[in-house]
Amino acid sequence: DAGITQSPRYKITETGRQVTLMCHQTWSHSYMFWYRQDLGHGLRLIYYSAAADITDKGEVPDGYVVSRSKTENFPLTLESATRSQTSVYFCASSESWAIYEQYFGPGTRLTVT
Amino acid sequence: DQQVKQNSPSLSVQEGRISILNCDYTNSMFDYFLWYKKYPAEGPTFLISISSIKDKNEDGRFTVFLNKSAKHLSLHIVPSQPGDSAVYFCAASDTGNQFYFGTGTSLTVIP
Fold first, then answer.
1. Cβ contact (<8 Å) for A106 and B99?
2. Would you call B103 and A101 a contact, using CB atoms and an 8 Å cutoff?
3. B102 vs chain A: nearest CA distance in angstroms?
4. Can you tell me the distance from the alpha carbon of B101 to that of B53, in angstroms, rounded to the nearest whole number?
5. Torsion sign, CA atoms A83, A84, A88, A90
6. pLDDT, tens digit, for every residue of B24-69?
7. Stretch among A15-24, A78-87, B96-105 having the lowest mean pLDDT
8. How far apart are CA A6 and CA A73, in angstroms?
């Protein structure tokens, strides 16, 4: 199906483990984004990518790594998960930076124990 | 520090009446604003936007008002319907930079 998908939808991991959240979009949008949603903070940008092999930090990048080898995929890796990274993670895409509307995936609820 | 604030965490409105959701921002460089709607277990979906050259934008039952001098925007939903019950996020950006989101307002429309 066309759209933007995230996997897994739910994940429980232990402190110190590496975990990767996947994001895939079928629109060939240039821009992709990772946000986290926490109570009292709304949505905060972690990383974004303007195109394949081009990534940049957002507001809260510490503890996260991203890559974008293909236009359609934008995985987010927590290299050594901490309890403070327990959150709901949303991936989004947009056609260009000048077109402001972003299309969001359904989210991944991550719990770090 | 939160650059975009939604000071009302929740709002309840009777079906058919007007819902008014408010958003304040601190950065005078912000020039583009969006509202997103979010249902439980789903990602946010785009609702309506406004640029700083306008003070009002309308799309069906949804109208966004921008008061630049007060650094305030509001979303009006008229008439409110039970299907409008969701969390609403406002977001703001200065051209070419990232969007900053508010903390959201949970709207409940009572049938």
1. no
2. no
3. 5
4. 20
5. negative
6. 999 999 999 999 999 998 999 999 999 999 999 999 999 999 999 9
7. B96-105
8. 10
